[in-house]
Design a protein that fits this description.
Blueprint (H helix, E strand, L loop, with lengths): L2 H24 L4 H8 L3 H21 L1 H7 L1 H20 L4 H29 L2 H31 L6 H7 L2 H10 L7 H6 L3 H11 L6 H14 L14 H16 L2 H14 L4 H29 L1 H26 L5 H20 L1 H11 L6 H29 L1 H21 L9 H7 L4
């Protein structure tokens, strides 16, 4: 095993996550300009923000077939090209409709990358490293978000006027091009190669990246047995009774992820800070602070996820959600539209705790968990289903946030807090622990024959 090759290939694949994070967060700095440039009401602003998420839903649910047919690595190369087209197209959009189209195209790439990047990493990683390595995708997501927030802050300081928002979107072309170039050094996933009966190539990859039991030949036979046990070949349908348990687990964790309100906060962070009395530049700076906390706590979670396990991180994160969301709801109920410095500080502190809780809990766990709980033959389809659910809920939350927040910021955050009570009970009583268990053994643990 060459750990260096494993880590480098993981980092390159996880650049799909970096672009996912950048694309997700960059629009937060442009909402005011988009409102002004395209004369948008709160309803149409929400729709404009959600336009990328509509693409994300479609990208997530349709990418499993290309990933199974052409391979995880080759699909990531196509995704990189789509990111590049979206970044340049959004920057040079000539009207609202063209902007919506290129944001929709970017959403296709985000949805696809959120399925394929962790899927690829899970399939090249030995079980003892898998949690940490798949979590690198989440680390890169939050790094991408921080880069987007920081880039927006820098561009805001340049006072570029009406073209400011175009520069914010255009910057994404740089990491997209880097992602495209570096992917050509990554090998194909060994499990995909075995599914395609390219055994010699799979053997070379496993020798380079390592196995769960120390024997390449034994690993290959175990993967073959897992594939053979799932009758129906590549046409095997996900929506069958034997896969009900992982389907319900995937849908639940994805729904709870968005019912925390996390994407509403990422997309509208400067707007929320302005609601709480901050000025425009101060709101951007506070958003950068959220991104910084996000990346620090994600690094900490990445370091301990294979030691503590998925459930413990989720429990800690759920408790943090409850404290933070309740605090922010209280602040909006108390101060309404007349915030004092104390009220603004309470909102900032609450959101910092929220981001820390998300980064250490759901943020670190979701992509790892989704990549683990489905058997080899339907893993791409299962991850696509979980990711589809995630982005479908994200679209609903992000579209409705401006309208609901206009009515009551307190009601908005109180609703998210109530949803997190349900998540806490789900984690404690239903969610299984997958720490340190091989992908093939997880299949047996969930009772899938």
């Amino acid at each position: 095993m060459n750990k260096k090759h494993l880590i480098l290939s993981t980092i390159v694949a996880a650049l799909g996550g970096l672009l996912f994070g950048f694309d997700t967060a960059v629009i937060s700095g442009t909402t005011g300009w988009l409102e002004k440039s395209f004369n948008l009401s709160s309803f149409w602003l929400g729709f404009t923000v959600a336009s990328a998420l509509i693409g994300t839903i479609i990208g997530a649910i349709t990418i499993s077939k290309p990933a199974d047919k052409y391979g995880r690595r080759n699909t990531l190369i196509i995704i990189a090209v789509i990111y590049l087209i979206s970044a340049l197209g959004s920057a040079f959009a000539w009207d609202w409709y063209s902007f919506l189209f290129f944001r929709f195209v970017g959403g296709l790439a985000v949805g696809a990358a959120s399925v394929v990047s962790p899927l690829y990493i899970a399939e090249i990683s030995p079980a003892k490293y898998r949690g940490r390595l798949v979590a690198i995708t989440q680390f890169n997501i939050v790094l991408g978000m921080l880069l987007a927030f920081f880039s927006n802050y820098i561009i805001t300081g340049l006072n570029l006027g009406d073209v400011e928002w175009r520069w914010m979107f255009g910057v994404e072309a740089i990491p997209a091009l880097l992602f495209f170039v570096l992917l050509f050094r990554n090998p194909c996933s060994p499990r995909w190669l075995i599914a395609k009966n390219r055994i010699d190539e799979a053997k070379l990859v496993l020798e380079k990246f390592g196995t769960d039991n120390g024997s390449v030949s034994k690993e290959i036979e175990e993967i073959k047995a897992s594939l053979a046990s799932e009758q129906g070949g590549e046409s095997e349908t996900l929506l069958s009774k034997k896969y009900l348990k992982p389907i319900l687990l995937a849908v639940a964790i994805a729904m709870f992820n968005q019912l925390s309100g996390v994407n509403a906060i990422w997309y509208y962070a400067p707007h929320i800070f302005k609601m709480a009395g901050a000025g425009a530049e101060s709101a951007m700076l506070q958003t950068v602070l959220l991104g910084g906390i996000n990346i620090v706590l994600t690094m900490l979670a990445l370091a301990v996820i294979d030691k503590f396990g998925r459930k413990k991180l989720m429990i800690i994160g759920s408790v943090g959600y409850l404290v933070s969301l309740s605090t922010v709801a209280w602040a909006f109920y108390t101060y309404g539209t007349d915030f004092t410095d104390i009220g603004s500080t309470v909102v900032l502190s609450g959101l910092l705790i929220f981001v820390a809780s998300h980064a250490f809990g759901q943020g670190a766990v979701i992509w790892v968990f989704l990549s683990e709980i489905f058997p080899n033959k339907v893993r791409a389809k299962g991850q696509a289903l979980g990711t589809f659910t995630h982005w479908f809920m994200a679209a609903i939350i992000s579209w409705t946030f401006p309208m609901i927040a206009e009515i009551s910021g307190g009601h908005t955050f109180a609703f998210y807090a109530v949803c997190m009570v349900a998540q806490l009970f789900w984690v404690i009583y239903i969610m299984p622990e997958t720490k340190g268990v091989s992908l093939e053994q997880i299949q047996k643990k969930l009772g899938i024959k």
